[in-house]
Amino acid sequence: MIKKEVIKLLNFYKNSLLNDTVPFWMKHSVDKEYGGFLTCLDRDGSVLSYDKPMWIQGRETWLFAKLYNVVEKRKDWLKTARHGFDFIIKHGFDTDKRMFYSVTRDGCPLRKRRYLFTEVFGIIACAEYGIASGNEAALKCAKDIYRLVIDLYNIPDSLPPKYFSEIRTSKSHAMPMILLATTQVLRQIDKDPLYKQIIDKSLSEIFDHFFCPKEKVLLETVGLNGERFNSPEGRCINPGHAIETSWFIMEEGRYRNDRDLINKALVILEGSLEIGWDKKFGGIFYFVDIEGKPPEQLEWDMKLWWPHTETLYALLLAHHLTGKQKYLNWYKKVHQWVFRHFPDKKHGEWFGYLHRDGTLSTRIKGNMWKGPFHLARAQLFCWKLLESWNQK
């Protein structure tokens, strides 16, 4: 990529993050009355539900702390991160030290799930806020939750099984993927030897159990030893998840200066794009059956915001690390499709859910799953990657 293109894209991502995405959430999301964030929002930012998904409380707290840490020491960003952190600490935890999935506006528990994703985003929220504020209690909280998650994941029967375990045992690609990314965040705090152990184990699981060498993609669900199930769930590919995993692995390869690891990640990226790209309408399918059979999910052909944000960063990173034109060509194709369909030019931020042909499915900006994370993270990471590129 020539320097002129780099500077243009750098400014594009910087401006879209700081003058569009971040202002939308700061204006509409901060709950000044009860603490925390309101994230179930209509197109114009008006509130659709006052219930609060706790994992998005963690994601939004992480974002504002991250902005403070890597962009500018702005007091309003640190204050916003503290606003989320305080709500998490006050209302996020059950007596068993696990976290609630959702709470009422004033923090009363509504739901608790068997999955560990709320805890994972609690970890990165506490870690990033602790770095930003110098709050040692926040850093300790991050490590305490992390140890709990590792124990629950590693100890058999510590969590309710998805199936009757005497009939079928399974595991999800999402767990080694998210443990890899979470540990990469925690590694900023200290040099605990546990971090490398968890990252090595996560990488081993991803490649040995979820990776399909023939198709060059990652399955979402397999048996405990990587067995493939002959069922819609067992054949399910989530291209966005796999592409997100690919850039987590690329970042690990960059951290370790391990070219072989980067090359393995690139195989996943390419295979996921090949199987996931909609050749008729453009954009990335939400789900794909590895054998080309009808996916079980009725929303399989929808185009969601987050797989596309992950793909933008993964392709930029791939081009940055290799210099290969094919990744830049893919990036330009994805970029063109994405910015023609997702941004809301009237009210700011992005729509999250499109039909297969790119037309709008729903106008909402936030719900129990969509909040200020994937888009803002991609904008920030693309900006900073391009900035480092420009400084060479």
Key words describing this protein structure:
three-stranded antiparallel beta sheet, single chain, Glycosyltransferase, 8% strand, mainly alpha, 392 residues, globular, 2 domains
Question: What does this protein structure show overall?
Answer:
- With 392 residues, the chain is mainly alpha-helical.
- It folds into 2 domains: 1-28 and 173-392, Glycosyltransferase; 30-160, Glycosyltransferase, CATH 1.50.10.20.
- 55% of the residues lie in helices and 8% in strands.
- The chain has 12 helices and 14 strands.
- It has helices spanning 3-28, 54-70, 75-91, 117-133, 136-154, 174-186, 193-210, 239-256, 259-276, 305-322, 325-341, 374-390; strands spanning 40-41, 47-49, 52-53, 102-103, 109-111, 170-172, 211-212, 217-218, 221-223, 236-237, 288-289, 303-304, 353-354, 360-362.
- The strands form 6 sheets. The chain has a 3-stranded antiparallel β-sheet with strand order 3-4-5. It has a 3-stranded antiparallel β-sheet with strand order 12-13-14.
- A hairpin with a 4-residue loop joins strand 7 (211-212) and strand 8.
- Helix 3 crosses helix 4.
- The longest helix has 26 residues, at 3-28.
